[in-house]
Amino acid sequence: MNELTPTFHSIEEERQYIKQRLAASFRLFSKFGFNDGSAGHITVRDPENEQHFWVNPYLVHFSQVTASDLMRIDEDGNILEGKHDINGAAFAIHSAIHKARPDVTAAAHSHSPYGMAFSTLGKKLEPLTQDACAFYQDHSLFNDYTGVVYETSEGKRIADALGGNKAVILRNHGLLTVGHSADEAAWWFIAMERACQIQMIVESSGQKPIPIEAKYAEHTYKQMGLPDVAAHDFKPLYDRIVKEQPDLLN
């Protein structure tokens, strides 16, 4: 089986594969310092029923999440599988994203340090590096903050702000990314966090950064910002975390 384009012999095999990639994403988020108490969630659609999605259990640290810990819930927030509670904000935000974007299989949101810091500026990323070009004209800004998101109506506003993009900056809150797989959504989040970090470092130098010209930023986006790129870039991280923490597969 080609890991990047796997074939499955049963729904159960595909489901286990998806859950293991999702568990690995949480372990990587922990390793990169994206944990913030009980906040943060990544969801991925179930391969059999696309109105159901898998999410991390509430109050379980990202570093402890295994494939068997994951919770399956429906679009109304009912727990269909799993022995834990779910994060109310996870349902409010992610259910709205999945409803609004049938093309999206997975969504990632967490309170990462640079994502939170950059979000307070109320602006979008500039194409300052070739890596940042992955988000060129493919991310948006939710330019509002009204408190912790527990209402589905607020989740819908976030989904509206995301639009057809791969990512949205939630002002005074953090980042949210989406993709056609858990691999893709997780990689875009990791890459966007780094882009926020780089832009803040550059701007704090007191020097005016030189952005990449629009035509070259657009060209670089086609090289750096497509789904296949994210899937390839996630693979080394997946291999690393599984070797270090093989219990996540359980």
Give the helices and strands, then pairings.
Layout: H1 11-31, E1 41-45, E2 53-55, E3 71-73, E4 79-81, H2 88-100, E5 106-110, H3 113-119, E6 139-142, H4 152-162, E7 167-170, E8 174-179, H5 182-204, H6 214-224, H7 227-244
Helix pairs in contact: 1-5, 1-7, 2-4, 3-5, 5-7
Question: Can you characterise this structure?
Answer:
This protein is an alpha+beta fold and 250 residues long. Strand 7 and strand 8 form a beta hairpin. Helix 1 packs parallel to helix 5 (182-204). An 8-stranded mixed β-sheet has the order 4-3-2-1-5-8-7-6, sandwiched between helices. The two termini are 20 Å apart. The chain is built from 7 helices and 8 strands; from the N terminus they run H-E-E-E-E-H-E-H-E-H-E-E-H-H-H.
Stretches with pLDDT under 50, minimum 5 residues: none
Mean pLDDT: 93
Could you estimate the helical fraction of the residues in percent?
Answer: 40-55%
The coarse overall form would be: globular
Structural class: alpha+beta
Ends distance = 20 Å
**Largest beta sheet: strand ordering:** 4-3-2-1-5-8-7-6
Summarize the structure.
The protein has 250 residues and is of the alpha+beta class. It contains seven helices and eight strands; from the N terminus they run H-E-E-E-E-H-E-H-E-H-E-E-H-H-H.
List keywords for this structure.
single chain, alpha+beta, 8-stranded mixed sheet, 8 strands
